[in-house]
Design brief:
The chain is mostly helical. The protein has helices at about 10-25, 35-40, 75-85, 100-105, 150-160, 170-175, 180-190, 195-210. Helix 3 (about 75-85) packs across helix 8 and helix 5 packs across helix 8 (about 195-210). The structure holds heme C (HEC). This is Cytochrome-c peroxidase.
């Protein structure tokens, strides 16, 4: 065979370079599924170039850093405790029956195992509940990227008619009546009547401390 005329190392280099070369010269739209599967089974350098909207800078996926807030950090300990309690408390919802953890259950990798979420009055939502284990790493939240921060996202989840259907001032009022929350509020905010923004911030701090391990 003619290929055998080349020295061994050159043959290896040629074989390795082939998928990379193909990725550059071939438009992925013209490749069939089998050809694409072969390319994606190889090293990432050989994958077809991504088609990006203008203004988007490409960044390769990589190992994520540690959670931004360490659970043992004394500065955040009380806020994490409060945020965690709120996350698992159904009394935040209008029906007093649905907590964040109904749809983001740690036993199911912070999701609910359903195709579409079931929320207030057993209404079936429009979308699947994403895992929140790396929510702190996302710049845009929700499937369509409509929330720019976890704070914005939580208020959306609390008030969404298909999710918790809560009114934020009423939710705060309910929580202030619960005796057991007083020491948690005191520890986290040095007073016993936190604002809605402080309550939301405690849940954010809790979510920013979640490690997937
Ligand atoms: C009834 C189910 C349900 C409840 C209750 C619920 N969520 Fe969600 N959550 C969802 C669904 C569905 C989405 C995706 C919605 C979308 O993209 O439009 C979502 C999205 C999110 C996201 C964005 C994740 C990402 O990567 O974009 C976070 C974070 C989150 N929820 C946290 C919370 C918190 C905190 C609470 C409680 C205050 C909560 N959720 C209550 C179902 C729920």
């Amino acid at each position: 065979m003619r290929f055998k005329r080349y020295p061994y190392f050159l043959r290896v280099v040629l074989l390795l370079a082939l998928p990379i070369f193909l990725a550059f010269v071939q438009d992925p739209a013209t490749l069939d599924i089998d050809a694409l599967r072969k390319l994606y089974a190889g090293p990432t350098v050989g994958w077809p170039q991504a088609t990006l909207d203008s203004g988007i800078v490409f960044r390769e996926l990589g190992v994520l850093p540690n959670a931004p807030i360490q659970a043992r950090d004394p500065q955040y300990k009380a806020m994490i405790e409060l945020g965690k309690t709120l996350f698992f408390d159904p009394r935040l919802s209008a029906s007093q029956q649905i907590s964040c953890s109904s749809c983001h259950d740690p036993d199911m990798h912070w999701t609910d195992g359903r195709v579409r979420a079931i929320g207030h009055n057993h209404r079936i939502g429009m979308r699947n509940s994403p895992s929140i284990s790396f929510a702190w790493a996302s710049e845009k939240l929700f499937w369509d990227g409509r929330a720019n921060s976890l704070e914005e996202q939580i208020k959306g989840s609390l008030t969404n008619k298909n999710e918790m259907n809560a009114s934020l001032p009423e939710m705060r009022h309910t929580l202030l009546q619960i005796e057991a929350y007083r020491p948690l509020f005191q520890e986290a905010y040095a007073h016993t009547e936190p604002s809605v923004d402080q309550l939301v911030s405690a849940v954010v701090v809790f979510m920013r401390s979640i490690r997937s391990a």
